[in-house]
Specification:
With 128 residues, the chain is mostly beta strands. 0% of the residues lie in helices and 50% in strands. Strands 2, 4, 5, 6, 9, 10 and 11 form a 7-stranded mixed beta sheet that branches. A hairpin with a 6-residue loop joins strand 4 and strand 5.
């Protein structure tokens, strides 16, 4: 059974930091870009970041570049998202996501419909 289990969400003040974790199981991670998408209340889901196990390539949405850092420990099948300098507009449900990229093709984070597996989500609230 494929599972993506998120942890690490919570409430933080603007300017603060949080680290999200996603533990994957039930599939071979080698050809997947694993990372995060988010959905704010009343808005569409948007890709945030992902990292590919095969070559270590990382992708970031423009809105989080320079503030968020994705990393992985594939020996533990776990991906992390370090979120610094958080802003109220970062408030959303963050979903772990895995997209199959067998040919190491570039990932367009906005094509969330290309994601193959989703986690249940974890809430991140940034207060002003």
């Amino acid at each position: 059974e494929v599972q993506l289990v998120e942890s690490g969400g919570g409430l933080v003040q603007a300017g603060g930091s949080l680290r999200l974790s996603c533990e994957a199981s039930g599939f071979a991670l080698d050809d997947y870009c694993i990372g995060w998408a988010r959905q704010a209340s009343g808005k569409e889901r948007e890709g945030v970041s992902c990292i590919r196990s095969g070559d270590g390539t990382a992708y970031y949405a423009d809105s989080v570049k320079g503030r968020f850092t994705i990393s992985s420990d594939f020996a533990k099948n776990t991906v992390y998202l370090q979120m610094n300098s958080l802003k109220p507009e970062d408030t959303a449900v963050y979903f772990c996501a895995a997209q199959y990229t067998p040919h190491r093709e570039a990932v367009d984070l906005q094509r969330v419909y290309d994601v193959d597996y989703w986690g249940q989500g974890t809430h991140v609230t940034v207060s002003s």
